Amino acid sequence: MGGSNPDEKILSYNDVVLRRSDLDILSGPYFLNDRIIEFYLSYLSSCHASQDVLLVPPSISYWIMKCPLIDSLQEFVEPLHLPAKTLVLFPINDNDDVSKAEGGSHWSLVAFERNDNVFIHHDSSKGINRSDATRLYNRVRRFMSDSGSTSNVRYLECTDSPQQKNGYDCGLYVTAIARVICLWHGDDRKKAKDGSYLWFSAVKEQVTPSSVAEMRNEILGLIRGLMEKKQSLPAG
């Protein structure tokens, strides 16, 4: 990159501002930060534009988990219109220090599916984020319906979620699994013959170490393509 400024803004996409340092993260075997994950989830939202699907930004998920005043959560989550959503994806980060931006060392994903009223946790390093995922579930479940009822809401750990082979690809697993679930939702929302959720099979088949590794190049190419497109647009 020569002497380029790592804090230089390179792309504004929806509400996400990416910086030069984000390209460096994607170019090497590094842990994905909040901005990259938020960017990709925002991109997925644009691709699967549907009023009943919500991909929650990492900062919003984190605040739901860590908000010190639980009574103030209702006002915070109200603009998300959770009762109107049939699919909601929450990225989970294990950062314990709310004062530290870009903290934490592991990402996972919680998916809420309304037809079965279930929260499902996909963790590419089994067990690491379980307490954080259950914390989010316990905080947000009463906001999933207008009545506030939690009697029929369940939480499940996906026991055969694809597992990472290194210590830095967890964010890529989140992006890859989120993409498969969104495709499943738009395609064929049925249960498999064995009673398992259809996206479980799809995730297991499509989220492999090689496909996850390729996500780096894919997201990097996507960002560069959007940068080029923006540069080619006439000013004004």
Automatic annotation (TrEMBL):
It comes from the Eukaryota. One of its GO terms (molecular function) is deNEDDylase activity. Keywords: Hydrolase, Protease, Thiol protease. One of its GO terms (biological process) is protein deneddylation. Residues 16-181 form the Ubiquitin-like protease family profile domain. InterPro entries: Nep1/2-like, Papain-like_cys_pep_sf, Peptidase_C48_C. Pfam families: Peptidase_C48. Belongs to the peptidase C48 family. PANTHER family: SENTRIN-SPECIFIC PROTEASE 8. This is Ulp1 protease family, C-terminal catalytic domain containing protein.
